[in-house]
Amino acid sequence: MSVDWDIFYYICVVIILVNMAMGWTVLLGTPIYYGRLSRSFSKVQFDPKLAWFLFEVPNLLWALYFLVFKNASVSLGLLLFVVHYFNRDILYPLSLKTTTKVPLEIVISCIVFTFANGYLQCFGSQKPSSPNRLLQIVGILVFGVGIWINIKSDKMLQQAKERSASTDPTGKNKYVVVRGFLFDLVSSPNYFGEIIEWFGYWMVCQHAEALLFALSTLDILTPGAIKRH
């Protein structure tokens, strides 16, 4: 059975838009979330390392598909995309210290989002373009600052959780308030870094799919940061 890629493209766009709308329901007390705000309907729970791998792996699979089956060129934007998700899908799960299980609903919703977004970004990376070189240079710098903030903040969070667990006689993870770096300035510097990162990515790519991704990241992560505050 052949795939109508034009229809698939628009289905992916709709999926992103629906996720953007649903992102704000966390402020209304949605029964579906993860981490410290974890809630769910399902009794099926995933190990956090496995859950994060499943969340993000569609991005790498789409990149591989485009490179192998679509003879895609390795554009700068695609390279940055793969760098981020190699860290997020392979390195980050290995560093996780939390034992908090992830609900089935969250795993499914994240996979659906990354499946749609991964396709859009890989598709967009192959569109003919004449990018503004100055904007690209600025974008690389912004992306670099964003990914540095994101990785450093995640590392500080994991270290704080590890220290908390080591001092707790029950061995359980407790919620900890991290101090220093940007944690005294913004509610969730790890989210802040990722938002910056994807706007830098859009400056590099300069296509509509990248802008949609940057806006959806801002839209989806902001309510979680507000709730965690």
Residue share in helix: 55-70%
Termini separation comes to: 49 Å
Strand content: under 5%
For the record, the count of structural domains works out to 1
Quick check: average pLDDT? 85
**Extended strand count:** 2
What can you see in these coordinates?
With 229 residues, the protein is an all-alpha fold. The chain has one domain. The protein contains seven helices and two strands. Strands 1-2 form a two-stranded antiparallel sheet. Helix 1 (5-23) crosses helix 4, helix 5 (133-167) runs antiparallel to helix 6 and helix 6 (189-205) packs antiparallel against helix 7. It starts with a helix and ends with a helix.
Show the helix and strand layout:
Elements: H1 5-23, E1 45-46, H2 48-69, H3 76-95, E2 102-103, H4 104-124, H5 133-167, H6 189-205, H7 208-228
Antiparallel strand pairs: 1-2
In short:
This protein has one domain (5-228). A two-stranded antiparallel ribbon has the order 1-2. The chain has 229 residues and is mainly α.
